[in-house]
Structure formats: structure tokens, C-alpha cells
Write a structure and sequence with these properties.
GO biological process, one term: lipid catabolic process
Largest sheet: 7 strands, mixed
Order of helices and strands: EEHEHEHEHHEHHHEHHEHEHH
CATH topology: Rossmann fold
Protein name: Hydrolase
Strand order of the largest sheet: 1-3-2-4-5-8-9
Number of helices: 13
Distance between the termini: 23 Å
Number of strands: 9
Pfam family, one: Abhydrolase_1
CATH architecture: 3-Layer(aba) Sandwich
Keywords: Glycoprotein, Hydrolase, Lipid degradation, Lipid metabolism, Signal
Family: Belongs to the AB hydrolase superfamily. Lipase family.
Shape: globular
Length: about 350
């Protein structure tokens, strides 16, 4: 999806290009959910950027394939964020650059949108030259210190989940459903006594911060999320937690020997990520822990900024939906981007 111009700059030519990549179970809709005054995509467009928004393979907007039908063919779902980073992101970036006639673009990723970029920068290092600046909101690479209860459980069973789910024929995780739309509209609206319960479900995923959640937006958020993912994306994160490493998918000893020539998957060579990277992270993020971000930061060769959000309650999804996200994050982020224009 694309927003080529803002409210007052439709005649502006030669705009800088920015590519936004969402997180796990999200979609391009999450960059516009909270309206034109606070959503990042609109803010960047109004600031004079040509805004492009990607969609990860398998989500609501990315379910077509020349051979496989995602509703019928299990082979469609044989991917994790490794394939998104090594195949899909480079393809989308090349498409945007071709359409705009540019040589470089800004990249802004959130959560899995950062993971897949780090995979691309490591495994397809030639793409670093196409990036003016990479902005990582809630960056995820190393995950040893994350405190999310769901992923802690996934990590415990990550070695067996793959074959169990494959045996059961479970390939897709939380696809977009009319049921979530119905729940959002009926149970999470302003008149509902269950609105606080809806908010609590979001907090259980990402960390508690009731002060920054506009509850009236919950039905809108739930109308677009969750947007679906492959079970292998979930399992791959669980493996990261268990191993304490940022490395490729663990297929098991035999398959690893066939695929990698070793019994364990290779680590991603993050030292090859030469594009300038701005890291934005927070103390109440249950997925992107400060200790893990610092561990990753120390391995990167070109850190443009390492910025911890001053609000100590800021959580993983506040980067998208917080009431004060512009002052807490976007203003500082855009000031950094201006240095690379």
C-alpha cells in the first residue's frame, strides 16, 4: 500500500521514499489505524515522504501464490521470517525503488519488521547500500530476556511444536477472522462493560500501559488484527529464546545436516548489517528487552542512534497505538531521518 503525498504537498516532486514494515500478526493497516493525526504513515506523508507499506507473506493482504492456495496447500506455509527477510523484503524494496526511480530509501520496521530486516542485512548484504537509514522500533533479534508469557511457553515446546503442528495439519496462526471483527464491535466498544477486558488482552501480549491506550480505538484495531502468520514464524521466535542466539531455523539434527551441513543452524552474521540503524526501545516491552537490544547493538557496526523511550510504561504496541506516540517516538525518529536526507 502507498500514500504518495500528504495533505499539503501533493505538488512536491522528488520526495524521499520511506518503506514501513509491520510486526508479527500485523499488516500495513497498523500504520494507519489511529487516524491521520497520530498514525505514522500519515505523519510521514504530511512531512513530505512518499510512504510505502509492505505486507508479510501470509497475512490478510499477502495470500496469493502462482501455485499454492493458502487455504488448501500446506506448502504455502513452509516459511518463517527468514524467508521474509531473504526473499520477500528484497523483492518489495526493489519494486519500490523501481517504481519511484530512487537508488535508496528509508526503512522503518516494528517488531518482526525489524527481525526480517536484520535477516536481510545479514544474508543479503548488498541491500545495505539501498538503505539510507533503518529505524528499528522495538527491535527483535536476541530474545533471551524477553518476558512475554505466550512466547515463554512456545520456547519450552519449540523443539517438538514443528512436527506436532505439521502432523495435525496446522500451518496458519491466528488468521484474520470475522469473529474478531464481531468481538471488537460488540464487546470492546465504549458502551460495553467488557471494554477493559479487551484492553487487558492486548496488555497481556505486550506489557501493561493503560494510560497510553485510547480504548475507543480497540474495535478499529481488532478489525485489522490479528492478520495471520505461519506457525513457523512463531516457532522460530521460540527457538531464538531457547538458544539465546540470532540464527536460522532449526529443522532438527538430520534436516539441519542436509540444509546447513551442521547439526545446528548457522548464526546470522549481523556484523554484515552495514546500513545505519536507529534503535528505539523501552523498559516495559515484554518482547524487546533492553538487555537483548544492548546485546544486539554491541554487535552492529553502524548504530546511528540508540534511544530508550523516556516513558517507563511504554510497551511493545505503543509504538503503533499510544496516545502520545508522536511526542515519545515519532518526533525523535523523524529528526534522525532528517540527518540522512
Amino acid at each position: 500500500h502507498r500514500i504518495p503525498s500528504g495533505k499539503n504537498n501533493s505538488d512536491q516532486t522528488d520526495k524521499p521514499v520511506v518503506f514501513l514494515m509491520h510486526g508479527l500478526l500485523c499488516s500495513s493497516a497498523d500504520w494507519v489505524n489511529i487516524g491521520p493525526e497520530k498514525s505514522l504513515a500519515y505523519i510521514l506523508a504530511d512531512a513530505g515522504y512518499d510512504v510505502w507499506m509492505g505486507n508479510a507473506r501470509g497475512n490478510t493482504w499477502s495470500r496469493k501464490h502462482i501455485t499454492y492456495n493458502p487455504n488448501r496447500h500446506s506448502k504455502f506455509w513452509k516459511f518463517s521470517w527468514h524467508e521474509i527477510g531473504t526473499i520477500d523484503l528484497p523483492t518489495m524494496i526493489d519494486y519500490v525503488l523501481e517504481k519511484t526511480g530512487k537508488q535508496q530509501l528509508f526503512y522503518v520496521g516494528h517488531s518482526q519488521g525489524t527481525t526480517s530486516f536484520f535477516v536481510m542485512g545479514s544474508e543479503r548484504p548488498e541491500y545495505n547500500e539501498k538503505i539510507k537509514l533503518m529505524v528499528a522500533l522495538a527491535p527483535i533479534a536476541y530474545m533471551s530476556h524477553m518476558t512475554n508469557p505466550f512466547f515463554q511457553i512456545v520456547a519450552i515446546f519449540s523443539n517438538s511444536l514443528d512436527w506436532i503442528l505439521s502432523f495435525l495439519g496446522v500451518d496458519e496462526f491466528l488468521p484474520k477472522s470475522g469473529l474478531f471483527d464481531l468481538i471488537g464491535q460488540a464487546a470492546c466498544n465504549n458502551e460495553s462493560v467488557f471494554q477493559d477486558v479487551c484492553a487487558s488482552v492486548l496488555f497481556m501480549i505486550c506489557g501493561w500501559n493503560s494510560e497510553q491506550l485510547n480504548k475507543t480505538m480497540i474495535p478499529v484495531i481488532m478489525s485489522n488484527s490479528p492478520a495471520g502468520a505461519s506457525t513457523k514464524q512463531i516457532i522460530h521466535y521460540g527457538q531464538e529464546i531457547t538458544s539465546g542466539k540470532f540464527r536460522q531455523y532449526d529443522h532438527g539434527i538430520i534436516s539441519n545436516l542436509v540444509t546447513y551441513g551442521s547439526i545446528t543452524p548457522p548464526d546470522y552474521p549481523v556484523e554484515d548489517i552495514t546500513a545505519p540503524v536507529g534503535l528505539f526501545y523501552s523498559g516495559n516491552d515484554w518482547l524487546s528487552a533492553i538487555t537483548d537490544v544492548h546485546d544486539f547493538e554491541n554487535r552492529l557496526p553502524n548504530v546511528a542512534l540508540s534511544y530508550i523511550i523516556p516513558n517507563r510504561k511504554f510497551n511493545h504496541l505503543d509504538y503503533l497505538w499510544a496516545i502520545d506516540v508522536k511526542s515519545h517516538v515519532y518526533d525523535r525518529m523523524m529528526a534522525l531521518m532528517e540527518l540522512y536526507l
